[in-house]
Amino acid sequence: MYNETPVAYLQAPPSGHEPVIPDAAARPLVTVAGPTGSGKSSLAVALAETFGGEIVNCDSLQVYRHFDIGAAKLPEDQRHGIPHHLIDIADPGEVFSAGEYARLAREAIRAISARARLPIVAGGAGFYLRALLDGLFEGPSRDQPLRDRLAAREARRRGSLHCLLTRFDSRAASAIHPNDVPKVTRALEVCLLARRPVTDLYRRGRDRLLGYRSLKLGLLPNREALIARLDDRCRAMFEEGLEAEVRGILAMGYPPSAKPFESLGYKQTLQLIRGELNPRDALFYAQRNTRRYAKRQITWLRREAGLEWLAGFGDSPEIRQAAIERLRAFLAGFERPRC
Q1: Are residues 29 and 108 in the same domain?
Q2: Are the CB atoms for 252 and 226 separated by under 8 Å?
Q3: Who's near 89: CB < 8 A, 6+ residues apart?
Q4: pLDDT surpasses 80 at 149
Q5: In this structure, how many other beta carbons lie within 10 angstroms of the beta carbon of residue 211?
Q6: Tens digits of per-residue pLDDT, 275-316?
Q7: Where are the beta strands (DSSP E) in 88-160?
Q8: Cα angle: 49, vertex 310, 330; to 5 degrees
Q9: Residues 62, 123: contact at Cβ < 8 Å?
Q10: Are residues 234 and 189 in the same domain?
């Protein structure tokens, strides 16, 4: 199906693709990561068709029902009959955490393996991927009243939460930027509820995914080409009815403060509906913020150990062929010799 010559890897895997040592206890797992708009879904479907796989979503917006256009969910007719998991599993008003994602994704992966199918995790949520593979430290559950008090304190004096975290856990404070209020808030929440520094809890280790050996592929298209595609995609979202979708969600009774409304495109659409932005400016800010988000995704994923980069879009024949050949070599390490 894909007969073009594969492109070279942007970043060669360690030791030049050393053979995988067979391990009877380990099962194969594939992840397809990359910035938004890089063609992860398309590549995941191609790999699933070729190797008998099922896809597990790793996008933090696609887990929400009703958020379709702005989330760039792959239409049913483009899924080619491949089962997709962890899409449309949460209502917009729900709080869906990385820990919940890791739990559900692991359940889906094990079920896929039990069916003798290949689990393929696809999406650009780097924190979700890390939670799935490396696990999260066991900390106290979210305490909304405490968070509200901390938010009020930060509103009264900007930077006060970071100063407070420095008093409780200077090592944690030094690792978090003062402007990253969500992370500062969570670190403080853990310190206050556990009554001990959050770094002490980190030392206990994490609940890593066991029983799997992973091939981690990353898509990294040319910067200018990616920017052009993202700008076009944002424009298409508005043209295809993003405003009508948002109005429909609001009409269902979900408040504008619901978490998924903070996402790219949706935030600008809310501002458009309120009269805070005109259509031209709404598109401008959606495009600008999407470009910035893609840059942050690449920065995050560059820190992901063992990620093998492919220099192009996942829907290009060359990249698909390169990924197929790499995955075929990876899976060969799981084959048992025949008698």
Answers
A1: yes
A2: no
A3: 63, 65, 104
A4: yes
A5: 13
A6: 999 999 999 999 999 999 999 999 989 988 999 999 999 999
A7: 118-122
A8: 55
A9: yes
A10: no
Measured distance CA(167)–CA(162) in Å, rounded: 9
Host domain of residue 196: 144-202
pLDDT in tens, 180-195: 898 899 899 988 998 8
Q: Is residue 101 part of a domain?
A: yes
pTM (two decimals): 0.79
In a domain, 254, yes or no: no
CB burial of residue 234 (10 Å; 0-12, 13-18, 19+): buried
Q: Give residue 113's identity as a one-letter amino acid code.
A: S
Residues 163 and 69 occupy one common structural domain: no
Specify whether 53 is located in the same domain as 119: yes
Q: Which residues contact 32 (CB under 8 A, 6 or more apart)?
A: 40, 43, 44, 47, 120, 121, 122, 123, 217, 219, 314, 323
Token pair in block for residue 182: 């969500």
Taking the C-alpha atoms of residue 213 and residue 227, their distance in angstroms, rounded to an integer, is 33
- Residue 115 burial (C-beta neighbours within 10 Å; 0-12, 13-18, 19+): exposed
Residue with tokens 């067979």: 22
Which CATH number belongs to the domain containing residue 170 in this structure?
1.10.20.140
